[in-house]
Design brief:
Number of strands: 20
Shape: elongated
Number of helices: 12
Strand order of the largest sheet: 6-5-7-8-4-9-10-11-12
Distance between the termini: 85 Å
Largest sheet: 9 strands, mixed
Radius of gyration: 27 Å
Helix content: 25-40%
Structural class: alpha/beta
Mean pLDDT: 86
Low-confidence stretches: 1-9, 42-57, 451-455
Oligomer: single chain
Length: 455
C-alpha cells in the first residue's frame, strides 16, 4: 500500500511541542521526541487565536513608555503564602498553571483560594471536571469554604464551561483539570495533546480578552513533569508546582515560571483534617524539642528566598557485619558518604567500623551542600557522645581537602539564625573541618549543662 503523500493544506504537527512540517518525519525537529509527529486535521486553538482576528480589532502599536499599567493592579487571593509565590497577588487576565502529584492537595488549595476570594466580594467560578458538585460541596463544608459568591460547575465540555463563564461573569476562574476537559473543535479524547492544547489556548484567550484571572490544574507524569504538550507551559503566564511528602503534612508551592514576579519564592502549607493552613514561619516544624542530645546539629536551609533552620540528627553504633550500613532520610546519600570519608581522613573521626544513620526532623529534604558541615558535626557528636548546644547552628560545604567552603546567601542564613536565637554560627570562617569541630567542642565545654547529656 502506497504511503499517503503530505499536502500543503494538511501539514504534520508534533503533539508534544506543536512544531509543524510539510512532510512526515519520525523525530520532531524541535523537541527531538520520536513518534510524536502526526497529520493535523485542522488548526489548533493556538493557530485560530492568532489568525482569526476580527476586522478593526487590532490596536496600533505604541511606545512602551506610554502604556498605562493602572488597569492591571495585583489583587490578593486571600491566601498569603500563595500570594508570596505569585509575586504579591493575582494579576487580572493572568493564566496560572498549578501542577502536582495525585493527592497532594491541589484541589484543596484552590478551593481555599476560591473561598477566600469569594469572601472578599469577588465572584468565583470553580469548574470541576473530576468531581461532582456534591463532592466539592462536601469538601467545602469540611474546610469551611462555603460562600454564596462561589459558584460550582461539574463539566467536562469546554463549550459548556464557557457558557457558565458568560452566565456567571466571574472575577476568578478555576478549571480542575485541563486534562479532563475536551473540546468539540479538536479531535481525540480528553487528555490527548491536541485536546490539552486546544482547551488551554481557548481558556487563556478568554482570560486575556476579558481580564479574568484563570487558574488551570495540570496533571504530572511518572517522572514528575507536567503532562501534555510542552507548549502548555509556554502559553501560561505562571507555572506553579505543588509538592509534598505523603508521610508528612507539610506542603510547598514553588513557582517554576512567573512573568509577573520572581521564581525563587516558596509557599509553605500544612495539610490538616480541616483543610489546608498557611505556615508563615515553618521554623518550629524542623527542629527537635527538649534538652540537647548527642548527634544533633541545626543547619540553616534555604527554600527560595526563605531561610529555615533544619535539625540534622545522626546515630552511630558498632557494625555487626563486615559492611557497615549507611541509612539516610531527608539528606543526599552520596553527600553523606563523602562527609564520612572526609571526617575519617581529615578529622580522625572513624566511622568505617560503625553503622551510621542520618536523618532530618519533620520530613523535610535538605540536599543542598550547605548541609555538609551540620552532618559532620552531628556524626562527630554521635561518635564522641557530645551534644551540640541548642544555641549553635552550622552552615558550610565541605571539600575533599577538608576545607569548609562558603555557601550561597550566607549573610541571609546568619541573619535568620540570629533572629531565631542561635548565638553561635559555625561556617567557613573556621577554615577547616578540624577547626570547626574544635570550635564546637570549645562551645560545648563552655556550656557543660547544655552540651553534655546526663545518663
Amino acid at each position: 500500500m502506497a504511503a499517503r503523500r503530505p499536502t500543503q493544506t494538511a501539514p504534520y504537527r508534533c503533539t508534544e511541542c506543536g512544531w509543524t512540517t510539510l512532510k512526515w518525519v519520525g523525530r520532531c525537529g524541535e523537541c527531538q521526541q520520536w513518534g510524536t509527529v502526526v497529520e493535523a486535521a485542522e488548526p489548533t486553538g493556538l493557530t485560530r487565536s492568532v489568525t482569526a482576528v476580527a476586522p478593526g480589532a487590532s490596536r496600533a502599536a505604541q511606545p512602551i513608555t506610554h502604556i498605562d499599567t493602572a488597569d492591571a493592579p495585583r489583587r490578593t487571593s486571600g491566601v498569603g503564602e500563595f500570594d508570596r509565590v505569585l509575586g504579591g497577588g493575582i494579576v487580572p487576565g493572568a493564566a496560572i498553571l498549578l501542577s502536582g502529584e495525585p493527592g497532594v492537595g491541589k484541589s484543596t488549595l484552590l478551593l481555599e483560594v476560591a473561598a477566600q476570594s469569594a469572601k472578599a466580594g469577588r465572584r468565583v467560578l470553580y469548574a470541576s471536571a473530576e468531581e461532582s458538585t456534591a463532592q466539592v460541596r462536601l469538601r467545602a463544608e469540611r474546610t469551611g469554604a462555603l460562600h454564596d459568591e462561589l459558584y460550582l460547575a461539574a463539566e467536562t465540555d469546554l463549550a459548556t464551561i464557557l457558557g457558565h463563564v458568560d452566565e456567571v461573569k466571574p472575577e476568578l476562574l478555576i478549571v480542575d483539570s485541563v486534562q479532563t476537559v475536551s473540546s468539540a473543535m479538536s479531535d481525540g479524547m480528553a487528555g490527548h495533546p491536541s485536546q490539552v492544547r486546544e482547551v488551554a489556548a481557548t481558556l487563556i484567550r478568554i482570560a486575556k480578552d476579558r481580564g479574568i484571572p484563570t487558574i488551570i490544574v495540570g496533571h504530572v507524569t511518572k517522572d514528575g513533569t507536567i503532562a501534555g504538550p510542552r507548549i502548555l507551559e509556554h502559553l501560561v503566564d505562571v507555572v506553579c508546582h505543588f509538592e509534598g511528602d505523603r508521610q508528612t503534612s507539610l506542603r510547598f508551592v514553588r513557582a517554576l515560571k512567573n512573568r509577573f514576579g520572581p521564581t525563587d519564592e516558596v509557599g509553605c502549607f500544612d495539610m490538616t483534617g480541616a483543610g489546608i493552613a498557611e505556615v508563615p514561619d515553618p521554623s518550629a516544624l524542623f527542629l527537635g524539642h527538649g534538652k540537647a542530645e548527642s548527634g544533633t546539629c541545626v543547619a540553616i536551609a534555604l527554600e527560595g528566598r526563605r531561610a529555615m533552620p533544619v535539625e540534622v540528627q545522626a546515630l552511630t553504633i558498632a557494625a555487626s557485619g563486615p559492611n557497615p550500613r549507611r541509612i539516610v532520610n531527608g539528606v543526599d546519600h552520596n553527600r553523606v558518604a563523602m562527609v564520612l570519608a572526609v571526617l575519617e581522613k581529615k578529622a580522625g573521626i572513624k566511622t568505617s567500623d560503625q553503622d551510621v544513620y542520618v536523618s532530618t526532623v519533620g520530613g523535610v529534604r535538605f540536599t543542598e551542600p550547605a548541609a555538609d558541615l551540620a552532618i559532620a558535626i552531628a556524626v562527630a557528636g554521635a561518635v564522641r557522645n557530645e551534644a551540640t548546644p541548642r544555641t549553635l547552628a552550622a552552615v558550610g560545604e565541605l571539600s575533599l581537602a577538608g576545607e569548609v567552603r562558603p555557601v550561597t546567601q550566607a549573610p541571609q542564613r546568619r541573619t535568620e539564625a540570629a533572629r531565631l536565637g542561635y548565638t553561635d554560627v559555625i561556617d567557613n570562617r573556621s577554615g577547616t573541618l578540624s577547626s570547626a569541630l574544635n570550635d564546637v567542642r570549645v562551645r560545648v565545654r563552655s556550656r557543660p549543662g547544655e552540651g553534655i547529656p546526663e545518663f
